Amino acid sequence: MGKHILILISALALGTSSAVAQGHEHPPSKRSGPAGEQEKKQRYTCVMHPEVVMDHPGTCPKCGMKLVPQKEEKRKSPMKIDNHSMHAMKHGEHEQEAHGEHKMQMSMQSSVDIADPMSRESSGTSWVPDSTPMYGKMFMFGDDMLMLHGAIFPRYTNVSSRRGDDRIDAPNWIMGMYSHPFGESAQLGGRLMMSLDPLTEGGRGYPLLFQTGESWHDQPLHDRQHPHDLFDELSISYSQKFDAGLSAYLYFGYPGEPALGPPTFMHRPSAMDDPDAPLGHHWQDSTHVTFGVATAGVVWRNVKIEGSIFTGREPDEDRYNFDEPQFDSYSGRISWNPTQNLALQVSHGYIESPEALDPDVNRHRTTASIIYNQPLGRD
Asked: Given its phi and psi angles, is residue 289 left (phi above 0), alpha (psi -120 to 50 degrees) or beta?
């Protein structure tokens, strides 16, 4: 009987030791279990198009941007971890998240102001709603970013009236913007916008009833939209971020766009698929091609105050040259994006001798605009 009791006690002790040993073998089990599966399930996404998800690193098929690791939801672990280990794990997680957020921020910044989101950037230094979609091909060179965008509208226009005309043409443009950060608080930006309108539309432009503005062969253009210059923007900017909400920038364009009026029409969400210029183009945003612009601005969160000096004379009839800069005009603008879907601005400017046919006429221009964009679903 004593032998049977001794054997039973020995068996229980051996079983308990085996269970304890198995309980302490967490690292191999963890690596081959849920953690290993989680590593295999790592996904990568695009910060511009979050609906794009892949199981391997690469570039976004929509914009060409480098994919970043997708954040996974933290799962609760049944293991008991001491306070020191928990602190170390949280510290590592915070560093990893901060690094990911840093990469995302570097990829999503405006080329004009390092503190602005890229979706807010429009023509010159103007703003559109933060929810505005962006279409283009993006390339990353380390922390440097290059984005290209273009559009062309081949068509036949027939305005069947006494004042109308018919024509085969193709309004078009190509744009590029580049940004190079200096650390996390400063950035150098550059932009280029070109158009082959002089070739596809000719000197008189395309038929557009009730449109006015500029001239051809020293005659004012009526019921036609004039072509734009070969070079519509060639600009450079420098921005500095002072804290999370305060930043400032300097912008120089030859040609460029001063702080006056709303974004030029082809940069507005409402004109994304419209090849025609609005009838108010010459009165609202005709200064978007100005040969000689210098702008300084200060941004506090979603409010911006800026001022410009620029050349008042509009581009001449030679669409391939660079006009002489004068810097004889000035303007100021206040912009405010109160929500993701709204962009408001009010501006005033003095324009010296804008029209070549009326050289003695100067203008004071005051503008106010509201741009609203409502996303209806994923792109």
From this structure: beta
Same domain, 352 and 249: yes
Is residue 88 one of the residues assigned to a domain? yes
Same domain for 94 and 242, yes or no, is no
d(CA 158, CA 119) in angstroms, rounded, equals 36
* One domain, residues 93 and 220: no
Residue 66 near residue 108, CB atoms below 8 Å: no
pLDDT band of residue 40 (cuts 50, 70, 90) is low
- Which range marks the domain in which residue 339 is found? 119-372
Q: In the block, which residue shows the tokens 């105050």? A: 305
> Could you tell me the pLDDT band of residue 82, with boundaries at 50, 70 and 90?
low
In a domain, 357, yes or no: yes
What's the predicted TM-score (pTM) here?
0.76
- Annotate 106-120 with b (16+ C-beta within 10 A) or e (fewer): bbbbbbbbbbbebbb
pLDDT in tens, 262-302: 999 989 988 888 889 999 888 888 899 999 999 999 999 99
DSSP element (H, E) containing 73: none
Verify that 273 and 347 share a domain, yes or no. yes
- Residue pair 64/137 in contact by the 8 Å Cβ criterion: yes
What is the number of other CB atoms lying within 10 angstroms of the CB of residue 65? 22
Query: Cα 329 from chain centroid?
Result: 29
Q: Identify which of 152, 143, 135, 141 has the alpha carbon closest to the alpha carbon of residue 181.
A: 143
Identify whether residues 104 and 226 lie together within a single domain. Answer: no
Number of structural domains (the chain) is 2
How many angstroms separate the first and last alpha carbons of the chain?
81
Taking only the tens place, the pLDDT of each residue in 187-204 is: 999 999 999 999 999 999
**DSSP secondary structure code for residue 256 in this structure:** B
